[in-house]
Design a protein that fits this description.
- Chain A: It comes from Krasilnikoviella flava.
- The complex is a heterodimer.
- Chain A is an alpha+beta fold.
- Helices cover 29% and strands 15% of the residues of chain A.
- Chain A folds into 2 domains: 22-127, Roll (Ubiquitin-like (UB roll)); 130-145 and 160-257, Orthogonal Bundle (Fumarate Reductase Iron-sulfur Protein, Chain B, domain 2), CATH 1.10.1060.
- Chain A is built from 9 helices and 7 strands; from the N terminus they run H-E-E-H-E-E-E-E-E-H-H-H-H-H-H-H.
- In chain A, strand 3 and strand 4 (93-96) form a beta hairpin.
- Chain A is globular, with a radius of gyration of 23 Å.
- The longest helix of chain B is centred in the middle third of the chain and has 29 residues, at 75-103.
- By secondary structure, chain B is an all-alpha fold.
- The N and C termini of chain B lie far apart (108 Å).
- The chains are: A alpha+beta, B mainly alpha.
- Chain A binds chain B through residues 130-131, 134, 138, 181-182, 185-188, 215-216, 218-222, 224-225, 227, 250, 253-254, 257, and chain B through 14, 16-20, 22-33, 98, 101-105.
- The complex binds protoporphyrin IX containing FE, iron/sulfur cluster and FE2/S2 (inorganic) cluster (FES).
- The site of iron/sulfur cluster has 16 residues of chain A, from helix 6.
Chain lengths: 258, 154
């Protein structure tokens, strides 16, 4: 402190030691509320908040909702990338708002935030996930076995577990399915997430429902609609190699057919 | 009473997003494999065709009626070109079918586009096949300098 007082004219005030620098950031948010005066029209709203380098897009959305416009509607639950509630289109890419730091999406320009594409918007950033879950249920995401229940846990070797490890990580956020251009025009397509979750059981050595699941996905609206654009792999916040999983399911079908 | 006619404030339960119909079967599987298999064969056929027509000997300058007539007098090139025609047409048609499926939003648009596509490729395949098999390299009355050497056996 004394050093600053000694030379006040030449030295600009230094930030306090340990202080986190803050910055202004503008969010451009796609709003939709059929009960408002805009009716069925979507509109863009801009909000400016003061944020820190440690803040995520979700924190900015909280600041807006809590301090500026309580009507802003979005889903979030865990706020830490576990529940899969807050997938949204941030600067044109599907991400989890709770895993995206503001400083990583260029806060110098307004950051656009839209609902994920291809699912019916209910309000603002909230979409109806039902078509997504309907496809998920269709691939039977549960263990299928025959015979008597064992009296102890079903053991599996580390290698057998490794076979489908990647696809066990899915949190059903729909970032992948709603990034897929085929799904945008064809809502009947099962979508990457359903295939990922089918993969998780098809390649599980303890499961006996692989044939049924391959049958279900060997559909005009199943794996063969995939055009290998890799949007899903890029979108997945869990880093799952989604396109690779889809290809592995395709390969299992081909080796079964020939 | 007026109250009895007031529609319920609660909307009817939303339609469950049911699959319109299941469309299982191996058709799309075979189509997917065919695209890759025909692609590999086309790679050989197309580049072999380009090499023989444009680079061997005098190259592109040698192409005239006589050149084509001479090639199609040989069963080898007839089969080559027939295979190239059929594979390219089925491959291309199937590829555009996929594109139409991906981009057409309404069933009626999709139907019209695919009908036009199948009609167009049927015409090309039938016409092309006909030409390859019925081609006469030595049409009577044609000027001799335009005809391939095989028209003058001696
Ligand atoms: C030169 C050798 C060729 C190879 C190796 C090849 C390979 C392929 C493959 C693997 C696909 C499938 C892509 C996918 O499913 O995502 C494809 C699609 C396609 N091919 Fe070929 N092809 C060849 C020649 C041709 C020719 C001669 C035509 C036109 C007559 C053609 C027209 C198409 C079309 C329209 C598609 C669909 C595009 C798409 O699905 O995105 N190709 N090709
Ligand atoms: S695969 Fe990834 S992007 Fe797709 S639903 Fe699961 S966690 Fe989300
Ligand atoms: S709020 Fe749970 S994943 Fe983002």
């Amino acid at each position: 402190m004394t050093a600053v007082l000694e030379n006040p004219a030449t030295e600009s005030p230094k930030p306090e030691v340990g202080a986190v620098p803050s910055f202004e950031v503008t969010l451009r948010i796609r709003r939709y509320n059929p009960e408002s005066e805009h009716g069925e029209e979507s509109t863009w709203d801009e909000f400016t908040v003061t944020a820190h380098g440690t803040d995520r897009v979700l924190d900015a959305l909280h600041m807006i909702k809590w301090e500026q416009d309580g009507s802003l509607t979005f889903r979030r639950s865990c706020a830490h990338g576990v529940c899969g509630s807050d997938a949204m289109r941030i600067n044109g890419r599907n991400r989890l708002a709770c895993k995206t730091l503001l400083k990583d999406v260029n806060p110098d320009k307004p950051i656009t935030v839209e609902p994920i594409k291809g699912l019916p918007v209910v309000k603002d950033l909230v979409v109806d996930m039902e078509p997504f879950f309907a496809s998920y249920r269709e691939i039977m995401p549960f263990l299928i076995t025959s015979g008597n229940e064992p009296t102890r846990e079903r053991l599996q070797s580390a290698e057998d577990r490794e076979r489908f490890d990647d696809t066990t990580k899915c949190i059903l956020c729909a970032a992948c399915t709603s990034s897929c251009p085929v799904f945008w025009t064809d809502g009947q397509y099962f979508g990457p997430a359903a295939i990922v979750n089918a993969h998780r059981f098809i390649f599980d050595s303890r499961d006996e429902g692989a044939t049924q699941r391959l049958e279900i996905l060997n559909d005009k609206e199943g794996v063969w609609r995939c055009r290998t654009t890799f949007n899903c792999t890029e979108a997945c916040p869990r880093g799952i190699e989604v396109t690779k999983a889809i290809q592995e399911v395709k390969r299992a079908m081909i080796t079964r057919a020939f | 009473m007026a109250q009895a006619q007031t529609p319920s404030a609660i909307a009817a339960p939303r339609s469950p997003y049911a699959r319109r119909k299941t469309t299982r079967g191996n058709f799309e599987l075979y189509s997917w494999v065919f695209m890759r298999a025909s692609g590999v064969v086309l790679l050989v056929l197309v580049f072999g065709h380009l090499f023989v027509n444009l680079m061997v000997g005098e190259g592109v300058h040698a192409i005239d009626f006589a050149f084509v007539g001479g090639k199609w007098s040989s069963p080898f090139w007839q089969v080559w070109d027939l295979l190239m025609l059929w594979l390219a047409m089925f491959h291309g048609t199937n590829g555009v079918r996929t594109v139409v499926n991906d981009y057409a939003q309404r069933d009626s648009t999709r139907g019209v586009l695919k009908s036009l596509l199948y009609l167009a490729s049927a015409i090309v395949v039938i016409l092309g096949t006909l030409v390859i098999f019925t081609f006469n390299p030595c049409p009577p009355g044609a000027p001799a300098e335009l005809l391939p050497s095989i028209c003058f056996p001696n």
